[in-house]
Amino acid sequence: MLQIRLASRPDGRPTPQNFDLDRGPLPQPGDGEMLVRVIWLSLDPYMRGRMSAAKSYADPVEIGDVMEGAAVGEVVTSKNPDFAEGDVVTGRFGWVSHAISDGTQVQKLDPAQAPVSTALGVLGMPGMTAWTGLNRIIGIKKGETVLISAATGAVGAVAGQIAKAQGCRVIGVAGGPEKCAYAEQELGYDVCLDHKAAQDGETLAKQIAEAAPDGIDGYFENVGGKTLMGVLPNMAVHGRIAICGMISWYNGANMDQTMPLPKAWSTILTNRLKVEGFLVPDHWQHYPEFVSEAAPMVQDGRIKYREDVTEGLENAPEAFIDMLEGGNFGKKLIRVGAD
Ligand code: NDP
């Protein structure tokens, strides 16, 4: 089996040397356990936080430990009465080709209902994050203008389509013309602005003002940096901001792309904005509600999704580093084993 461990903590941008590839014999399940062969590993931006020792909402991965992550796999051998050989399951198996599990926090998937990889993307944690940010944090209403950054990513693409389906005018911000064309033509964004083409936050602010002359009622914040600088002055009075992530700063880069705190603070006051950070695990009890709304929309094509697949677990470190800088186009997945 192959496992990828954290070898050292990154200083800024992670490098392949921060990861160790560790090959060993296949483990055998004990009583009450099962052996899972991993098919799909999800790569998510939060993993950058787990590589760092800095205080956060979750404990870091210790040096020498296997990298954390959600995955989908197939039960190969089971000594657990709740799971049978051939079951397709999802759980937090980590960056591994095979995992031993006692079934804790493992869910069975029905491959007839949706492609099983969607449990890691559009119908999994990222989709749930999009739904939560829009409905439970921003509280979008029909007719409002909503802006979504990282508009074509795992979270952003679902957020854009849900907001559109709920009757909002939806503006996306994404990196590059290809992603923007996809946002407008496939995902149904009314407009998508290319943050890479805008030299700074002020340029982006002017573009956003043109795209939303009456202001932004809801901002789904995924990136921070230049995009936040462009959005904040354009927030409508009584606008709401859901702080979901700030990926442009995760590697410690782009720290000059920021608005002075006094200016940001006074904008929040004068425009009477509501700004709320959220972590999707706190809202997980609403997952059934999300999935009952989103699954039919995925099935009938009202919510489209795109996956960006890298073959082979050994390539996960490079793929992860690339994703943190926008190299992915859609939900980032590693195909660890055959379907
Ligand atoms: P994505 O699939 O959106 O991939 C990351 C994207 O971030 C890249 O494709 C890129 O898109 C964008 N990006 C990277 N660097 C920059 C930059 N310097 N400036 C602007 N954009 C950048 O990832 P996810 O959908 O999985 O995650 C999106 C955000 O949601 C992240 O911030 C993540 O941490 C957060 N999140 C938060 C959760 C919570 O519970 N609060 C749960 C899940 C995710 P582009 O090329 O378009 O710029």
TrEMBL record:
Q: What is the lineage of its organism?
A: Bacteria, Pseudomonadati, Pseudomonadota, Alphaproteobacteria, Rhodobacterales
Gene Ontology molecular-function annotations: oxidoreductase activity, acting on the CH-CH group of donors, NAD or NADP as acceptor
Q: Where is the stretch described as Disordered? A: 6-28
Boundaries of every Enoyl reductase (ER) domain copy: 14-334
The record's Pfam families line, in alphabetical order, gives: ADH_N_2 (PF16884), ADH_zinc_N (PF00107)
| Residue spans crossing the bilayer | none
Q: What organism, scientifically named, is this protein from?
A: Mesobaculum littorinae
Protein known as: NADP-dependent oxidoreductase
Q: Which UniProt keywords apply?
A: Oxidoreductase
